[in-house]
Structure formats: structure tokens, C-alpha cells
Amino acid sequence: MTTRTTVRRTGRRAARLAVGALGAAVLLGTGLGAPVAQAAAHDTGRLTDLVNPFIGTENEGNTYPGAAVPFGMVQFSPDTGHNTGYDYSENHIRGFSTVHISGVGCGLGGDLPVLPTTGDITSTDYAKYAAEFSHDDETAKPGYYKVGLKTGIDAELSATERTGVQRYTFPATDKANVLINAGQSLHKSVHTKVEILDSRTVRTAITGSGFCQDTKPYTVYTITKFDRPFTTSGTWKGDTVTAGSESSDADAERNGAYVRFDTSKDRTVEATTAISYVDAKGAALNLRAEGGRSFDKVHRAATAAWEDRLGDVRAKGGSETLRRTFYSSLYRSFLAPNVGSDVDGRYTGWDQKTHRAKGYTYYQNWSLWDTYRTQAQLLSLLAPRESRDMALSVIQIDKDSGWLPKWGYGTVETNIMTGDPVTPFLTNAYQQGLLKGTGEAEDAYRALKKNADGVPPADSAPVGREANKEYLADGFAPYIKDRAHVKPGDSDYDHGASATLEYALSDAMLGQMAKELGHKADAKRYAERAQNYRKIFDTSTGFFRARDASGAFTGPADPAQSEGFHEGTSWQYQWLVPQDLPGMVGLIGGTDAANKRLDSFFAYDQLVADPAKTAREVWVNGPYDYYNADKYNPQNEPDLIAPYTYLSTGQPWKTTDVVHAALTLFTDGPTGMTGNDDLGTMSAWNVLSSIGIFPVQPGTDTWGLSTPVFERVDLTLDRRYYPKGKLTVRAQGTSGTDRYIQSARADGAAYGRTYLTTEDLRGLRDLSFTVGSAPSTWGTGADAAPPALK
To answer: Are residues 360 and 386 in the same domain?
Structure first.
């Protein structure tokens, strides 16, 4: 879940998902419960009324409730003291800051927390001057956030792509302040500068580092313009407040400015903060282009942007709880990646130089180990124009810096997580038809080939395929316990077994791309390397197992206690061979043996008897409990595809059983996120699984099928990529009991396979399922399963 071993060792929070019977209500349609701290959806026809941004703000979901527009550079949200920003269990707000990343496992962003106060400035530490609040006085909807502080001040937030807009309603006073804190963020402060330019404008430059471990520094530039002059102002550095001061510089200490207004007659103050990752000029240009509008106009525009985005998916049927959960997940799926270029197209590349994106928008923030499995595919389906620009941005990182990213934040590589996630991310873009411009596919291929066949040099930030030398020579990445890290971030040597599986998966996807582009020799070579998963299969245990540098199997033989797997065990990684499930099934003794093992893994007999209880009491053991388990972990990435393995073992109805049980973990309260959301990864899983179309071979164009939870979902698709422009998925009568597919029809014709390709989707207008209360023979034919890659 993109949470490091440092988090696990120092701060494991094993709180269980205390949502009780509400989860079962999601699928059983009883509609129990209303979303916490948000009014129930009214019958307005607005999909934004179904979204609860507070979902995931408790129990380490690490989401944020604040204001953003789809894929916006700014995420204007309150920070309460949690390392990633906001925690629903806390009751003090330290400030409203401009940058947040949804669902990450370590602290980053939180730049420029601003807070309205009254009276004299007596503290410069936001942990001390934080304002108390109650959830009873708090509201959040897409593009809007409001809270009543117990100081008597109301704060409202909204956003454009590159600005955050704030409105404060003060009591009548001549000492209404706005504290602008440049020196305290969620990341490690390196250097900050604050300047009061005139009686309406404050500018800052904030250089920070971090995200699980130290990274190279990055800088965010901000400019804040108020709607009226302030009466007085000053700055602070450390504990020292200097009235009338116009600037302050600081290294790794508190640093900021305050501005004061007389609200005796006019009690409201509005301000717009623009940010840039390029320079102060970029922030000013962004402010000029997107600022200058009243708060109400910005709020209306943000709501309209979200209505337009959510309106591409029209779900019918199901309880209101189910609909709220679904649309909240759809909302979170569109929060990242984020615009990284300014309105003039300039952006800071990973070489730390200024570049200009021409003909596309440059995006940043790449949690690729997470998003390559679900969110990348959802965006390619519902937001292909943006997805194309995102793919071009990743290719551009290679052009600017020499290497492709692994986990990129802003303008730097963090090297968090392992394996080779950029390959299935980009091959997915290719397979979904997003790279059709002149030379785009070949540009992607050249970058991927370099990444797959080499290792970045010691003087470059990325680690890439860190264990590639050994992998290419021996067919596996060795697990070298307690090896010193050469670069900040995670090391593939710490997780040699899972790195081997991830490399092999990526080789398969790259081989498919090479084959289609006519690179026959490369295609053959990568296809052979895709079989390297076999190199770490221990026939004595019947499971994958880490090998040390000498090639000997190492670590406990018990697969539930295994070492060398990143955020998981051998049990949980055993199905991560989507390129060749028939081969994997053969290794463990054939279809019958595989189904027995799957049944044990999912606690299938218990699941059928009580799906929600099994999900909560057998599968889930806390948001960061990744190890020492022999059961399915539905809240972490290694197992996201696992329920769909039954499509390849002749028992597709069990996929529906497992998926629908896992869906009960998504609820419409603050604890309703299964672990970290990781930039929309888990949310996208919920959306796709609810619709019944899921990417079972990430990096290809293959979509597995299961029973939808809605009777009808109408998708509006971009005609440039999907000529029909519409796709309707039907499952009349689907419910907690009538959940088994009896038959399927594609545009009226009988359809017996358990998968579709993207090409199928492009020519399809209607996919209909007939459902019943008992499993059937649908999807069990000899050619029904998703085929292995060749």
C-alpha cells in the first residue's frame, strides 16, 4: 500500500475496520447508515450529492476531505496532525494547505497551511495555534469544504486546477488574521522564503524533501492574493514575530507571515493561492489565468467539473448506500495523477530544468506500483485524453532525466516500492490505443527496453530494476537481507522474490508490445524472461520462495512466514502471474489442486456462509498488517487480481463470491476505505469490480467479467477511442442472493467467455448478464478463460 517498513516497524496501527453490519448493507441493499459529517444525498439529480469525501479519513485510509477539481495541481484541504494530513478522529485543524495526495502511506505535501485566527499572534507553531472544531460543523463535497471553527470563524475552501480559493467569515473584530505558514508542512522542510509584496499579496517558495525516506529536494512556489487590502502584516521566524517585516528566509525551521483585517463591518475575507513547481513567475501566471473570480463562482465551476466527470457513469439500482459508496470511489479515482505544468506549458523536469510541454498537459505524481493494476485502466476507459497525456508525461520523464519513474512525487523520484511498475503502466497505454501519435509508441518502447535491460547508473536518482544484473544472468532477483541501500527509497534486494515476479510480469507485457511493433527478437527474449517466475518456485513447498545470492532458497519454508516479498507473503503473491496462469496452475498440480488452494486462501466455505464477517474477521487484520498470513488481503495491491483467478480455473462463480464479499469492505463512513487508497488504486478496484469489468492482465487489453452489483450502468465513452460512444452493462435483478451469472449476451448475441478485450469494448454497445441464485456452467468452456500471453 505504499507504506514503508519504517512505518510498519515504528507505527503499526492495527485498528480493525469497525464498521459492523454497515458493510453487509452495501451489497444486501438495506441502506443502513448515512454518511458521517455530511448531509444525506437529496433527490437533486446531482451525482456530487452522492459523494462523501470523508470516506477513508479514518483507520489509515489516508484520504483528504478538501477541495480539488479532477486531476488538479491543487488539493486544498485541512490538516489535523496526521502524517498524511487529515484524520477524522482528531479535532484540531492546524491549517488548510494546498497539496495533498489521496491515500498515500507516508507524509508528503501539506505545503503552505493557512489558518484564520483572531487577536494577537502569540504562537508560530501550528501544533499549538491549531483551532478546535466539531464534525457537526463540517461539510465536504467534490470541489468544496466548509468548517466552523470553535474560535467563531467559518472557513470555506474551493479550487481550480492550479489555485486554491478560500473564504473566511470572521466575528466583528479589528484583529482578524490569516496565518500563512511556509515553514511547516507534511514533508521535511529544507528552506522556505516568504515575502509580502503589497497590501494584498504574499509570495512564498517552499523547498522540502521526504516521503517515507529522504528524497532529493523539490520546490513549490506560491502566491496568495486577497480580495481586499489588509490593515497590517508581519512575518515570523522560529519563535520571533516581527510586525511590519516584509520578508523572511529560514532553513528547516518555522517561517511564515501574517496579515490582518478589520472585520468590524465586512466580516468576510476571500483569497486565492496559486502554486507552481517551476518558479514564482509560473505561480503568478497561474494566478492571473485562474484567479480573479469570486469564491461562489469558483465553487460553482468546481461542482460543474465534477458533475461532468461523474456523469460519464450512470449507475441504476442498488441501495443509496451502495450508490454513495460507488460514486465516492469514482470521485477518488479522478483525483490523481495531477497537472504538473503551468498555464504556459512550462514544468520542472526530473533533471531539475525547466521544460515546456507542447501539445499535451504534463502530469506528475506516479504511484505506479499501485495504480498500474486498476486505476490506469479505469482512466484509460473513462478519461482517455488525460490518460494519453499522462503516458506522454511518463515518457517525457525518461527524455528529461534518462530513466523512467518508479514512484515519482512532484519533480523527483522517491524510489518507493519495488519491481518494474512503469512497464505495465505504459504497455497498458499502448494496448488501450492511447499512443497513436507520430512515434509515440516507439518512444515508449525504446524507454521501456532500456529500463528492462539495464540499471540506472549510481549518479542518477532512480533505482529502476535495481536487481536486473542478477535477474538477467540467473533469472531471479536475489533476496539479500539487511543489504545497505545505495539510494534513498526501497530496494529490490530487500524483496527479491516479489521483485522477480514483478519483473517477469513486466517482461511479458513488454514482449507483447514488442511483438505487435515488429521487434521479433526482443519479443522472443522478453517472452522467455516472462517465464522466470518458475525460477523461484520451490517444489518442496509448492510455493514461490526467495533465493539468496548463491541461488539457495532462503527464509522460512512456511509460505505464511515467508521473507523477500514486499508487503505480503508467498500465499498472497502466488497468483501474481497474470501472464501465464495456466503455467502457474500446472506448477501447483493442476486445476483441482489450484481450486483447493484458492478455496483455502479465500476461506471460501466461511465466505459463502457469511461474506461480510469473513471479509472483516478472516481477511482483514489492520491497515498495515501485510505479513504472517495465509489468507487473501483485499486491502493491498499484490492481491487485487487474485479473486479473478477463478476465471482461469473453471469456477467463475467463485470470482463473484469473493469480489462481492470484498466489496462489503467499502462503506460510506470515514472507515469505509480498505487500507490506503494509494492515489485511487483501491477506489478504482471498487468501481471496476462493481461494474463487472476488471483488468485481469495489467499491461494488456484483457478485461475479466464478473457479476455487476448494479442492475444497469451506462458509460459515456470518448468517441475518439470508443467509436460507439456508449456502453451499457446490465444485470437485471442482481442482488446479494441472485449474484451468479447464468448467461451473458454481447449486443444480443450469446457470449460464453469470461473476458473481453478493449477491441471488443470498442465495438460493443450492450453487455447483458442474466443472474440467478445458484452457480451455472456459464464461463466454464474450454476457451472461456483469459488466455496466457505467448
So the answer is: yes
